Amino acid sequence: MSLCTYLTARVVILREAEQGVNAITQAAAAEVHAFFTQRINEIDIIRRSPLFEDHFKNVEYSLRQEAEVYRVQIEGMLSDFASRTRVYPRVYYLDPSGKTLCLIQDGKAVRAGGTFESPDFLEAVKRMSATGRPLSRTERVQWYGYPILRYGVPILDTHGIARGALIFDCSLSSVHAFLGKLRLGISGRVRLTQRPRRTRAGPFPQWLGKGLIASSIPISGTSWAVIMAVNPREFTDRLTLISTVTLFLSVLASMLVIMIITRQVRLLLIPLEELRSAAKTYASGHLDRRVNVSGPTELAELAQSFNAMAENLRQRTAALIQTEKLTAVGTLIGGIAHELNNPLAAVTGFAELLKDTPRTDEEREDLRHLYESSLRCRDIVQGLFQFVRQEQPVMARVSVNDAIQAALALSEYRLVKGEGIEVVTELDTSHPEIAADFKLLQQVLVNLLNNAVDALRDHSGRKVLWLRSSSTGGNVRIEVEDTGPGIAAGERNKIFEPFFTKKTKKGMGLGLSISAMIVSQFSGSLSCEEGRDRGARFIASFPPCPPGIKVAEALRRTADPRRKGARILVVDDEPDVAQLMLRFLREDGMDVVALTDPEHAKRRLKEDVFDLVIADLDMGPIKGTDLLEQLGGDPRPGFMLVTGDILNDEAKAWASGRNIPVVTKPFLRTDFLRVVHRVLAP
Hints:
Elements: H1 2-46, H2 50-60, H3 64-85, E1 90-94, E2 100-105, E3 108-110, H4 119-126, E4 135-139, E5 148-156, E6 162-171, H5 173-180, E7 183-184, E8 188-194, E9 213-218, E10 224-230, H6 233-283, H7 297-355, H8 361-389, E11 396-399, H9 400-418, E12 422-426, E13 433-436, H10 438-457, E14 464-472, E15 475-482, H11 511-521, E16 525-530, E17 536-542, E18 567-571, H12 575-587, E19 591-595, H13 598-607, E20 612-616, E21 618-619, E22 622-623, H14 624-630, E23 638-643, H15 649-657, E24 662-664, H16 669-680
Parallel strand pairs: 12-14, 18-19, 18-20, 20-23, 23-24
Antiparallel strand pairs: 1-2, 1-6, 2-3, 4-5, 5-6, 7-8, 8-10, 9-10, 11-13, 14-15, 15-17, 16-17, 21-22
């Protein structure tokens, strides 16, 4: 009977241990699969950057200088990306022949120009389609001490012809480090290895040995597998000791021994069952469960290890998701900022010049709408940067009724004439006020109006949009309600998460998340509920404006008194922006020379004398700061910079340390001239 008890307990314990090993292996494999999936998503996002198309088009048209500008921007984007992710020892940008255009090593750009070391891999990448899954291959390279996982995607033109390739060499050291922290008992370890061929011994490599409790989970879409093995003696040694003692004393006290064995087996099985159940819960992705720390010392330590592992996995998963999303957003925004702000500066500036010229009432109204819409575009771009950097808004006393009317004025044409939507306003006659940034609050309302328009566009029923303001219960509320299809109850919290969107053909899923972030900066909350006709009702709730908050300063300001006749040199590689600054300054009575070639500007500075030099910060190989250095580092004549790169904190700090003003594109005429007059002031 003692032998039967021993054998039964041994079988049960080993079965439970095997299930625990399988569950841990599955959880580890899920994390490794997520790591590889993230790498594929990253290279797929990067290759969609418009900088690559701009680069190879300029190369095709033999515009070497312009192509070099885009190549440098691509190099900076890839360098910033590699330094943030910290998993790519090398990143390549190649031309179709395999020549290295950009090479990022350990997050830093190094001198390019060589030939890619694996031409067969490059040829395989060039044969891929635009929608194909990124090619991946495990390779050993001389310059890295461990195997790397090489990913590649082609850079295709609109005809599907390969104009280059992106190659990301991914290090697996972080994966091995993560798996090295997962343990079961003393000998239990998790490893990442090449997927072994199935033999008579099973799907395990020969080096693993025999007689172990092992589990192997292949990583789908790769040649890798996660393997865990543990020595069964860790679970059976104590039972063997108990069985030996029981057998030795069975003649004298057989019944007593049976009771002791039964009790010991139960003490072993209960914690293992809890561990197995917890491991299954972890494998399914639910990491909030914790194991009761009790029982024998080894099992208590194992339970503590399980709890610590679950907490680490939960924290790292949440941090990884948030970091990767913000990294992708920051990379894309940083890459297009200069290209977007330069044309937007021209649109805003020329619209400002035209809106005050003598015209018919209808033309003046059209120009006013154009000017205000361009300002809203500027605010939207700045809102995207605010999403990445979360800068503090300028707080002032704001009437919610005025904000609603201003947002409605910008969207009224699209609402009524464009979409045929009936707009109903129900505004509180007490004119409630809150502490907020007027432009940001207007941006929130415009976002909510745009969402309502999208919801009502394909709606077959009555199209009605309500805008309400109220002040009840110590709170100020703004409601935007529509008669559209509404939002499912399970999605009403998800819609405020970054990148969540139900628009399959447009939208990045940032509008509502940015709006919720802005509202929270005003100590408010943004929520969604079902409306009266099963539509969507968005409610922004704020505390009333506290005393002592001043009314917002008027947006339109007058420029300082003019200093006519000052000689000014304007240097910007964007012709439209250079022409805009020339117009602003000439209408202000200045003697202006505008150049788009920084080399020409250097020569002109040697030949002529100017009272002020205005230069773009980033003009390709030659920076605006280079012109200042040519003047001996002393801003004589006066010197100021303009830039479309809002995120370039390093350059702004450099200019601030030398007391050089920096004007951010797009700028208003009054703001631009105010800085000019301040620099020219004696």
